[in-house]
Amino acid sequence: xxxxxxLKRNYKWYAIYTRSRSEKKLYTELLEKGVECYxxxxxxxxxxxxxxxxxxxxxxxSYVFVRVSEREYYDAISSTWAVRYVCFGGVAxxxxxxxxxxxxxxxxxTKRNVELxxxxxxxxxxxxxxxxxxxxxxxxxxxxxxxxxxxxxxxSLGCCVHADISMEEVKRxxxxxxxxxxxx
Length: 184
Hints:
This protein is of the alpha+beta class. It is 20% helix and 35% strand.
């Protein structure tokens, strides 16, 4: 019975808050421990007095995502560069697999240019993306920027993501998202 229970571990994604500027160090340490982790990166042009260089920096500063079962839960947080899990109400909040997969797809598809048809959306509306790389992701609309840029807050990530996305690609949810926790 115990062997069967070990084989059927329930793996979930969590966000770990890192020490300042230690995202890549924690990511490397977790990989060395054999912990499945994800560090979304963005390319930025850095300018120094004598040169310019493209560098990869974390998309979410001070966060690394880990996919662990109860068994690896404490191994991941006991890493040198980890501070704590991202919690709401004192409990680490699991992130739905679909949101991590959508984030990966979104980062792969950075050159999106979709024609816009205006729709009446307002700050605070609860939306779900219906097509494209973020399909199925639910969030709260924080801002409309220009004609086709919207800012969505994904509660379970505890952050905002700026997305170039057409308003045609989202639908308003009839039932508001539970702002304390989103289940997949």
